[in-house]
């Protein structure tokens, strides 16, 4: 039970505050990271992006490091790329304490801002192919939850759509467009369920678009 408590605590703190620094993971983190990643997406990659593509990052804070070390997953956050008036943006869900607009939940940010808070060695972009016209359908559902202003799921319950953390948003969007069939890899840890980012490395369901310093599982 102690190991389960530590795992859940690390997961919650990482998703809520992956853009923050703190020396004590049991305190409520409020200080924002001011440093930026050194990732610059090549123009050839930007030219190939489509609304509905999925972007993963690993946060550059210590909590993200502890989370990935515990779960053995490289990434700690995800979002959906959309294009508005020739500018790429990302719809994602994150805790309001670290959002520029102090929004708690599903929100819209620029692609540059999303990439800025990635570890400079871990970024991944892929394209969903598990249903016909997946990009269009995912984009539409992403805007649906954005317009509903779904709050952040601080309890990480996965029991309803009333609140959503980062990968939970994608989990429900994928089910919405796939006749309620799940495509996520789910790991049971004692009584907790984790949505794994290894989901996006399945070539049957996703095509890799871009990766910064790809790791072995790519």
Walkthrough of the structure:
This protein is of the alpha+beta class and 218 residues long. It has a single domain (2-21, 38-212), classed as endopeptidase domain like (from Nostoc punctiforme) (endopeptidase fold (from Nostoc punctiforme)), CATH 3.90.1720.10. It has 6 helices and 8 strands, in the order ααβαβββαβααβββ. β2 (77-84) and β3 (87-94) form a beta hairpin. The protein is globular and about 45 Å long. It starts with a helix and ends in a 6-residue tail after the last strand. Residues 4-14 and 16-35 have low confidence and may be disordered.
How would you sum up this structure in a few lines?
Helix content is about 30%, strand content about 25%.
Features:
alpha+beta; six-stranded antiparallel beta sheet; two-stranded antiparallel ribbon; 26% strand; endopeptidase fold (from Nostoc punctiforme); 218 residues; 29% helix; 6 helices
């Amino acid at each position: 039970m102690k190991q389960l408590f530590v795992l859940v605590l690390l997961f919650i703190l990482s998703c809520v505050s992956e853009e923050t620094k703190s020396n004590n993971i049991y305190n409520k983190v409020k200080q924002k990271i001011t440093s930026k990643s050194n990732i610059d997406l090549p123009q050839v990659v930007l030219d190939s992006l489509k609304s509905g593509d999925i972007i993963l990052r690993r946060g550059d804070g210590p909590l993200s490091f502890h989370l990935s070390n515990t779960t053995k997953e490289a990434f700690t956050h995800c979002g959906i790329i959309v294009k508005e008036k020739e500018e790429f943006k990302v719809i994602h869900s994150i805790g309001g304490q670290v959002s520029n607009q102090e929004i708690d939940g599903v929100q819209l940010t620029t692609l540059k801002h999303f990439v800025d808070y990635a570890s400079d060695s871990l970024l991944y972009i892929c394209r969903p192919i598990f249903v016909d016209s997946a990009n269009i359908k995912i984009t539409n559902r992403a805007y649906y939850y954005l317009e509903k202003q779904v709050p952040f799921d601080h309890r990480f319950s996965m029991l309803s759509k009333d609140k959503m953390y980062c990968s939970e948003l994608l989990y429900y969007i994928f089910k919405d467009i796939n006749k309620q069939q799940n495509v996520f890899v789910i790991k049971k840890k004692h009584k907790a369920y984790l949505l794994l980012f290894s989901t996006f490395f399945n070539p049957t369901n996703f095509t890799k678009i871009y990766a910064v310093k790809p790791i072995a599982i790519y």
